[in-house]
Design a protein that fits this description.
- The chain is mainly α.
- 74% of the residues lie in helices and 1% in strands.
- A hairpin with a 2-residue loop joins strand 1 and strand 2 (52-53).
- The mean pLDDT is 89.
Length: 310
């Protein structure tokens, strides 16, 4: 079996492994690291020891792939093609690790470091290799995913911040989610190798609803005496939400309560779809995320769980 066939065999094996993990109960850190180990082609990168990640070793994995892709782009199109496919799974594995870390208080800090490494590698590949449109689309989808998968996760301390600062922050986060989904959509979700458009839209809208539920919850608790419907930025946020929501595009928002009810409906509807079609329980995932900051979000957890039972 020649080098191209060997790389193809590794790719087909890890693609099958990853598809079996996505959204399922086996979607764990350990299983993702097993897939990653297969993708290092016996180079023995020591990225994880004593419950800690070595960021230098992780960077070496990406330099290995970047150099290999650069070397084979002109010399051997077959090896380049299969190595590129393996590279996309390496990126996908680190993206999935970030999702696992989102509900792990000790490892959440790795998320934005990992995403920065992925972004830098994506830029390096684009800069040093003259790729055709098909490859560019795949790389753009990977960056888009990271924006709409993770923009809702950041925990920010708003103590002593005024309402304009908070609304600006949430509007920027909402725009990042939208631009990420738009980038992936325009790239046809990387030729839909691992995903389908409807499910990705539901993940996107679930994350949007979750982000805005946290905003509404904070406003109800900390800014009870403000008339939000006279605030330009507040109006812009929920005008933008209705623009991207298929479910609530014609909703009439007359009170904070009516907005919260629509967001809960969006959140539960998208969870139901993903649960039925992908066996992906985003409600359970989001509850675990809120439980990391239990004291702050206890009432929001109760609101979501009570709405689920109705």
């Amino acid at each position: 079996m020649n080098s191209c066939k060997k790389i193809e065999a590794v790719y087909e094996e890890v693609k099958k492994d990853l598809n079996n993990l996505l959204y399922g109960e086996n979607h764990t850190e350990t299983n993702l690291l097993i897939i990653l180990d297969k993708l290092t082609f016996e180079k023995n990168f020591s990225i994880y020891e004593n419950n800690q990640y070595d960021l230098d070793e992780i960077s070496k994995i990406f330099r290995f792939y970047e150099d290999t892709l650069k070397n084979y782009h002109e010399d051997d199109k077959c090896i380049f093609e299969w190595f590129f496919k393996c590279y996309t799974i390496v990126v996908k594995v680190f993206t999935e690790l970030c999702l696992v870390f989102s509900i792990n208080k000790e490892k959440r800090d790795y998320i934005y470091t990992f995403l920065q490494i992925l972004k830098e590698s994506n830029n390096m590949v684009k800069f040093f290799i003259p790729l055709d449109e098909r490859y560019i689309k795949i790389l753009n989808n990977l960056i888009g995913e990271q924006l709409y998968y993770f923009s809702h996760l950041e925990y920010k301390e708003f103590r002593d911040k005024d309402i304009e600062y908070i609304l600006d922050y949430y509007f920027l986060s909402l725009e990042k989610q939208y631009h990420g989904f738009e980038l992936s959509s325009l790239s046809e979700f990387g030729n839909k190798e691992f995903v389908d458009e409807k499910s990705e839209y539901m993940i996107f809208m679930n994350n949007v609803a979750f982000l805005l539920l946290k905003l509404i919850y904070m406003l109800k608790i900390d800014f009870k005496n403000i008339t939000f419907f006279e605030n330009r930025k507040f109006i812009e946020i929920f005008k933008f939400y209705k623009k991207i929501s298929e479910l609530n595009k014609d909703a009439t928002f007359e009170s904070i309560q009516s907005i919260e009810e629509c967001l809960i409906e969006e959140f539960l509807s998208s969870n139901k779809y993903l649960n039925n079609n992908k066996q992906y329980n985003v409600l359970d995932e989001k509850i675990k995320l809120l439980q990391i900051n239990t004291d702050e979000y206890k009432q929001l957890i109760d609101i979501i769980l009570m709405s689920k039972q109705e």
